[in-house]
Amino acid sequence: MEEKPLKARTKSLSPNDSVKSSSKSDIRNLWTKATLSQPKLNVLTNVCDDSDQEDSSSRSKSGQWYRRKTCPERAWEKRDDRKKGSITQGELDGHALEQEQSPSSFQKNHVEGVQDSGELDSSVSSVNVLKHTHHRAYWAEQQDRLPLPLMELMVNEALEILTKARRSYRSAFGKDHFLTHQLQGQIEDLEKQRNGRQQVPEP
Amino acid sequence: MKLKTGSFLWCLYLDKLYCLLSVRNVRALVEYFGLLDPHHLSTMNDMMFYHFLHHVTNCNRKQITSVFNMLDWEAAGAISFDQFYMLVCILLAHENHLEEQFIFRHSRPVFELLDLDGALRIGAESFEKYDFLFNIKKHNLREFYQDFDITGDCLLNYKEFKLFTIFTMDKYQEKQKAENKKEEQKALLEKEYATQS
Hints:
By secondary structure, chain A is an all-alpha fold. Helix content of chain A is 59%, strand content 0%. Helices cover 65% and strands 3% of the residues of chain B.
């Protein structure tokens, strides 16, 4: 069989409400609540879902699955179509949470917007713009990441699996084999990642 | 076969209608797959696969080996993300009792997975071998052979398999309706009893 049979057509879905009891769904609540608390951010999910409906059988490498959703082509087209010139407060608000932009380009664009808005009347409105800008940039960045509790769960589980696999590697390939070294390296990296997250910075 | 409660896969969920993961779930799965790829080849070898499945499910060694052989359709000794994604969807469908729906929605990929020798025909042996994944019951298959085995060779080609999936889906939906009706009647009775008392 040479075909890659599965076509991963994805859709935005409603939460699974049938099987799991509420007492066991803490992590899942964190996962869904992270987006529910920012209703406007759902725009990103829908946009990404729409832009990502492709046939998975055309992809042979796992790296192709993961595309950064922050810079689809449409966003660049939209930005080009926008009038260059003064950007009013209303326009900034109207484009609230343009999640399609990457954080760096987003900030750059808004810095340019702020520079162009020398025509804004009061310093208060420019402060509001900056506050709004940072706030939006923060949420834009958050959209790009997986929730921390989920990351922690993934890393802990991966560590357990890799540690068990290390025993098999050592018995099958030996301690000095390069595959065993690579596995050991991955385990050390994940442990550093986990320990780094657990350390609380001193005030 | 059961998924370990509290594991990462246990947190994912399938869309009930299409029996696939959402983009966000797939993104998380990609990250997870990357964590389990120490050699940075975007693949998972048989040893890693065994430890992964042994950790997240209660499958035994024989079952894990048969699943790996089923997924490694290129006989490369490792599976890529496509096959991993397929496996996760199958596991979640089984966990959430959506096997009939999954097979109905993805009859072609499932047929190709079960057709291990590439003969474009699958028999009762294949179903028995992967009963722990797809939950295809013997009595359903026997009924089906009586009514729909057009070629009469007790092997299913793709069209016959597709008919079989429609047949099991109909049965599943009838069963769901009957259960819902039963629950409604029970609720009505309880309500009447409550009002009378």
